[in-house]
Amino acid sequence: xxxxPKIQKQAAQLRETINEHNYYYYVLDDPLLPDSExxxxxxxxxxxxxxxxxxxxxxxxxxxxxxxxxxxxSEVVHAIPMLSLGNAFKDEEVQDFDxxxxxxxxxxxxxxxxxxKLDGLAVSLRYENGLLxxxxxxxxxxSGEDVTQNxxxxxxxxxxxxxxxxxxxxxxxxxVFMPKAGFNKWNQQKxxxxxxxxxxxxxxxxxxxxxxxxxxxxxxxLRFLSYAIGEVEGGDxxxxxxxxxxxxxxxxxxxxxxxxxxxxxxACLDYYQQILEQRDSLPxxxxxxxxxxxxxxxxxxxxxxxxxxxxxxxHKFPAQxxxxxxVDIDVQVGRTGALTPVARLAPVNVAGVTITNATLHNQDEIxxxxxxxxxxxxxxxxxxxxxxxxxxxxxxxxxxxxxxxLPKKCPVCDxxxxxxxGEAVVRCTGGLFCAAQRKQALQHFAxxxxxxxxxxxxxxxxxxxxxxxxxxxxxIYTLTHEQWAGLERMGKKSADKIMKALEKSxxxxxxxxxxxxxxxEVGESTARILAQHxxxxxxxxxxxxxxxxxxxxxxxxxxxxxxxxxxESHNMEVxxxxxxxxxxWVENEAAPSKAPALAGQTFVLTGTxxxxxxxxxxxxxxxxxxKVSGSVSKKxxxxxxxxxxxSKLTKAQDLGVKVIDEDEFVALLExxxxx
Length: 675
Ligand code: 5U1
Description:
CATH 2.40.50.140, 24 helices, single chain, binds ligand 5U1, Helix Hairpins, D-amino Acid Aminotransferase, Chain A, domain 1, alpha+beta
């Protein structure tokens, strides 16, 4: 079929537009279009190519998945070996590395490019005349597996380079990895399907990339970041590693936004500390940082020793997986009555934190892993996630152990436990009769982000429930000064304080009040959305599931729980009693038109914050609508400089970005009204 020049031009333009969007989305991390519109463009191109197959080019974005499954991976001999890195675990080892390099180069100080060490799979991408011709795994460094069809399915890897000034042959080396969010989501799906889960994101990346059927790789949330080059022919590259990375980015290859250039080893060690602090909040797993001598001619002078360069070293973080023993298995009863089995562990240090407990999630998880008291287990602590048992070492199991089964009655109130169809958890049926649920409900009600009752901590809550002084959360406002003063470790002064805090808490916001009620599936964000949408509590109480699911971000499950909560007469009674005790808010203060106080503002946090962990600072900023970025650019509105702030502070000063210290930051949080 003859294809008109108009149609040819249309297809070429679509390809170019889609590639441009991929570049902005995956390389610059700055999407130009919503996903739905991007999908429309893809569908348009697919339709054209289906109608006119002759239009299909090898670099078309539609051709990422296409090849028929392989029976085996063929071997690729690397034109230039893929190196590994020497490791340093202590600061002194880094200093020794620098000392040796300076002596060999006969210079006083060395400029370093510092980068994250991603926990994924190293690959090499070979471009010839700008087209991706081979993708290979590292293998033994000399030769690896041909995973060309697989790497082509990663949208973060360009099939054709941008521009026209790239070398005729360009080999790019980097890491394929699976971000934490994708890893967790996939593992949940695997559990639901009864499949074996991946032990960590590194295994997930390797398992996903090395699929003989590339269409399976295409489904996996894999990313790629470039960090080095291999063979280069027919073109020159800059003389600094950091400049080479910039060049790779200009050619369409993604590079890490966490990379920096620093002037000496002390700055390398500062970078290490700074990244270690951020490790848990990064969207992907890393196992350390890498220091590379930045000048290429210095790298060439230094050369290699066995398979590792003398010009680069990995400074590893403490391990996140360790061996320990299950001493016992206990059951905790949560606010919603869920029974959670918890492994009590022989104390063990994981990534600098001593761990004595790990969640076992539920009975299905226990069965799947077959965790028993006395077992030797691998425990893992990653991100914000509560430590968990990854697997058992069956060979180390003592004799006569028994499989663990959750109790049939609540260990706190002795009520029956039930497992609702389709749910993995079992729940105590005791409701607020169950002291464990009452304790948790009260603690949640009093917490800082809910009613903020200063001083009403865990110990005090325990006494109130154990002494039966609080049967419903509303009772908290009816206790007398005498009753407070009569509690253990309380006196007249403490009673004064708590009464004042209770009085203060009565003036709140609708969003906080809703959150404080502890309705299932109504976290802070959902509470805020409901308050902004309905403005008044009466309207929320009247809302039907149909009304609720119409609100963006409110799903059917949350809607069901909200309606069920307000249908329950004792919940309505608690609300009436709370309001009668003086709990109030200004109903129109959450007007929907009011954007959050810091909406549209981008913050970068650097250095050590004294008043709160970095994670909290990030969460508070995000709750106020701000974006928190890991690197400083012209688009940054504020850099918050804590103690020992390093290169990001310098960069902010260079770019003229506003820098505030911790006191100013805390003041800014305080004065920004939360929606
Ligand atoms: N960031 C980074 N990770 N990483 C791993 N750079 C880097 N360089 C490596 C490796 C194995 O090897 C170089 C020596 C090319």
